[in-house]
Please model this.
Amino acid sequence: MIPGAVAILGGTGQQGSGLARRLAAAGIHVVVGSRNPERARAVTAAWSGAVDVAANGAAVADVDTVVFAVPFGTIDALIDDVGPRMRSGAVAIDLTVPLTFAGGKMPAVALACAFKTVPAHLLDRVDEPLDCDEFVCGDSDAARERALALVAVLPQLRGVDVGPLSRARAIEQLTALAVAINRRHKRHDARFRVVGL
Amino acid sequence: MIPGAVAILGGTGQQGSGLARRLAAAGIHVVVGSRNPERARAVTAAWSGAVDVAANGAAVADVDTVVFAVPFGTIDALIDDVGPRMRSGAVAIDLTVPLTFAGGKMPAVALACAFKTVPAHLLDRVDEPLDCDEFVCGDSDAARERALALVAVLPQLRGVDVGPLSRARAIEQLTALAVAINRRHKRHDARFRVVGL
Model:
């Protein structure tokens, strides 16, 4: 096992790549998981920070934190594929919208949701401050704490624990609201900060 | 008609009283609507700003903006009661959570939602700055604009137009999230600000 390492499945995708680069820049050992490691290596070679690349199934085997950053439509198949290869006690962090796998398909793996509201393309502009809050939920204390710790690694991003996994739907509505605000006001980076906390 | 006047039904209640007092303090002519005007007058007499008090049905007759600040369970009956007495072209602003009357029970009255997320007891501490955003939605441009104008009257509160009335559910999820954050973090005033707008 690689202590503290984080696998990001879909780590060269829109949401995943910004997170991978920001975590790597913050000193986290990042393993980018991909269906096509060859192609992923070509992508990550252009990044300023160093990351490992592996096939999705291999990427999850050695880490205790796995971030699912794949498109919504592909997550079920991916979970069937890599779920059994995740370490017992590992934490899965879901950042897809909408949440799909709250049903406990991965025994011995605790699930948290995070990084659902921070705009993907802002995450991807790694030199720009995020300057917002990120909402974390999960039924497992360990999973929530892991996700909050990951959020805390990123400068100017504050993690806000909102409790059980059932809050994921409310978090996703925030994302929908941000999209609506962007569309209506011709912006691109609408995101949220909690006042009074 | 009283130009620019705002009727607040349930204006001595938890959500309504703060809004009534803040609007009055900002120079808006406020008519507090109540089931029991006698009792409402006793309440409003203690307020520092001047407001009128009337029975709900009378309160709506002379104004072009009606705020529904009554408990969720009573709003349907109230709408049946006062809806027919509202002026044609009047705007109804709903701040109950969850939204109940998106179905068009009030012909010739346009509906917007606002003041759903700002905490009632903070609204009620009229000398404290709100320092947050308030989300407004509605299918009618006129209704949204009216609601945004009301929001703009309150210092340090920014109105954010989030589009059609169907966004009300997303706004209500924000409120649910604020409640969850308050509970989890032992706070009372969690509210939201949009970053990047």
Observations:
- Chain B has one domain: 6-185.
- The mean pLDDT of chain B is 88.
- The helical segments of chain B are 14-25, 37-44, 56-61, 75-82, 120-124, 141-153, 168-185.
- Strands of chain B lie at 6-9, 30-34, 52-55, 65-68, 91-94, 110-113, 132-138, 157-161, 191-195.
